[in-house]
Amino acid sequence: MRSGEALRLDRADVDLAGGILTIRKTKFRKDRLVPVHATTRTALRQYARDRDTAFSTPKDCAFFLSSRGNRLSSPGLQIAFAETRKLAGLDNGKPVRPHDLRHRFAVTRLALWHQQRADVQALLPLLATYLGHASYSDTAYYITGTAELLALAADRAFAGGANS
């Protein structure tokens, strides 16, 4: 998800039972459904319990709240992310930004598909849809040629693997 999409999530947009987020008002003015991994669902459930304990009477319909009980703002997200980076020990060298997680997700997904010998070309439209892109060329921007990804693609190409 884009940071702005996460900040715009309302409680009604987060289906913790089904593990689906409804993303509204995307960059391209479309809505999309995003499935979340079971571990993410667990973390979101814990956050919701903690949030509801802290703010038993919601001031806002937002899913993510600031320490004042209002919708989390972009600067608030940046501050919280910086604190989380420090706690996780990720402040060595170039700081990780929330948007970097989108890039890493796209590259990791492609690497996994190559490892699984999946038809990567056929799956690229799914990745584009998941990321909320209007076209594959928008998704291509996210695909950084990491050493791992390039090695996997090269192995498949030189091995004569179909759909490489």
Structural class: mainly alpha
How many discrete domains? 2
- The CATH topology label of the largest domain is hpI Integrase, Chain A
Could you give a short account of the major beta sheet?
Answer: 3 strands, antiparallel
Order of helices and strands: HEEEHHHHHH
Q: Order of strands across the widest beta sheet?
A: 1-2-3
Helix content: 40-55%
Quickly give the CATH architecture of the largest domain.
Orthogonal Bundle
Broad CATH class of the largest domain: Mainly Alpha
Radius of gyration of CA atoms, rounded to a whole number:
18 Å
Low-confidence stretches: none
Q: CATH superfamily of the largest domain, called what?
A: Intergrase catalytic core
Mean pLDDT: 84
What is the terminal-to-terminal distance?
A: 27 Å
**How much of the polypeptide forms β-strand, as a percent range?**
5-15%
> What's the number of extended β-strand segments?
3
- The number of distinct helices, counting runs of at least 4 residues, comes to 7
**C-alpha geometry:** globular
Brief write-up:
The protein has 164 residues and is mostly helical.
Give an account of the 3D structure.
With 164 residues, the protein is mainly alpha-helical. The protein folds into two domains: 3-88, Intergrase catalytic core (hpI Integrase, Chain A), CATH 1.10.443.10; 100-158, no CATH class. 51% of the residues lie in helices and 6% in strands. It contains seven helices and three strands. It has helices at residues 3-8, 38-54, 74-88, 100-115, 120-131, 136-140, 147-158; strands at 14-15, 20-23, 32-35. A three-stranded antiparallel beta sheet has the order 1-2-3. Helix 4 packs antiparallel against helix 5 and helix 4 (100-115) runs parallel beside helix 7 (147-158). The radius of gyration is 18 Å and the shape is globular.
